[in-house]
Specification:
By secondary structure, this protein is mostly helical. It is built from 15 helices and 4 strands. The protein is globular.
Length: 374
């Protein structure tokens, strides 16, 4: 997850957005608001990680937002109305997500259908099924009883002292993996960066981890959604950078014809990407529903657009073949800061929609300009 030149302008833009809202609304940098911002970021960024896997081979998923509502609604109905234990209900919802999205991916690649059209239709189907599942009513997810574990997804905070222990483990793991990768590259004769640059990157990463624990510890501790996001990021990073599936995703997005000639299993790779997307949509749905406190007809609205915007802002090419986990995280952070800042400033809903639309258009425009120059 090295900071590359392409991510530098994104980091600068993020600092500019934060500075603007901090100047306009001092509460933006308050401990309570920063903790809420971390939770909101975690939900948006988790979905964006799944979108990254789908965008890398040159596809897209416009049904993600409706899927967030549907799978979150399935979990809440099973817990509140069918009285299933929360682990069993969430497990069933998770399994539904994986199977549904794998079936959608199989339909796209086997029938050679544009993913834009298929997922657009699925968006409407999932929205209708979601309203049907919750019977066009509100299904509350409140602490206590069977729903206690469900609600804990966004109400539990890891105490700060445990957070420092976890931070130390992460820093040591980062040092170990960096040194191991460096030794392997040297053993195979590949070029490596200088020791000074490697130390600088590790130092910046350690500082960022320490700052995160310090800031979240000022309120109640580390929000559970941020730990879930960390786990999802780790899995997606490992998939994209250290597995054959990741190499195949980049290869298909870079050139589908060349990937086919090279023997890349095109269908299996895309289906796997959509299956991972379904799993992440389910996780996001559970967190978003728990954060809202209930499953209502508006849960998940426009989340697919925020996920796409986070990816594009983070340097993911809409045609596929380019994108990193770090870039997507930075893009999601810009989106989360923008929405949180507007909320603090009591910006009207119509202006919020305009701002999100402008950000999405600018992100795509920037991606197109950069792609033409590359």
């Amino acid at each position: 997850m090295n900071l590359r030149f392409r991510e530098l302008p994104i980091a600068i833009a993020l600092l500019a957005v934060c500075a603007f809202f901090a100047a306009k609304e001092p509460a933006f940098l308050g401990a309570r608001n920063l903790s809420m911002l971390v939770t909101e970021l975690s939900i948006t960024a988790t979905l964006a990680m799944g979108m990254l896997l789908v965008l890398l081979p040159g596809h897209i998923d416009l049904s993600a937002g409706s899927g967030v509502g549907l799978l979150g609604g399935i979990g809440s109905v099973l817990v509140m109305h069918q009285h299933l234990p929360a682990p069993a209900a969430l497990g069933l919802g998770f399994l539904c997500g994986v199977l549904i999205w794998m079936a959608m991916g199989a339909f796209i690649v086997c029938e050679r259908m544009p993913s834009f059209i298929v997922t657009l239709g699925a968006m409407l189907i999932f929205k209708g099924l979601f309203w049907r599942v919750i019977n066009n009513s509100t299904v509350p997810v409140v602490p206590g009883g069977q729903s206690n574990l469900y609600s804990l997804l966004t109400t539990y905070y890891l105490p700060a002292h445990y957070g420092w222990v976890l931070a130390a483990v992460l820093v040591f793991a980062l040092i170990f993996t960096t040194l191991s990768a460096r030794r392997q590259r040297i053993a195979h004769g590949f070029a490596v960066e200088s020791r000074e640059m490697a130390f600088l990157r590790l130092f910046i990463a350690a500082q960022a981890i320490a700052l995160f624990v310090l800031v979240t510890g000022q309120f109640r501790g580390i929000p559970l959604p941020s730990l879930i996001l960390g786990g999802v990021m780790l899995i997606v990073y490992a998939l994209t950078q250290h597995t054959a599936l990741g190499r195949h995703l980049y290869a298909i997005g870079g050139s589908a014809e060349a990937a086919l000639v090279s023997g890349v299993p095109m269908k299996r790779t895309v289906i796997a990407a959509y299956g991972c997307m379904g799993a992440i949509v389910a996780i996001t749905g559970f967190m978003q529903t728990a954060y809202a406190g209930s499953s209502t007809t508006t849960v998940g609205d426009l989340m697919e657009l925020d996920a796409v915007a986070a990816c594009v802002i983070g340097g993911v090419n809409l045609r596929g073949g380019r994108g990193t986990v770090l870039g997507v995280l930075l893009g999601a952070l810009i989106i989360a800061c923008l929405l949180n800042g507007m909320q603090l400033m009591s910006v009207e809903n119509d202006k919020k929609f305009v701002a999100r639309g402008v950000v999405l258009i600018l992100a795509v425009w920037m991606d197109m300009r950069l792609s033409r120059k590359a």
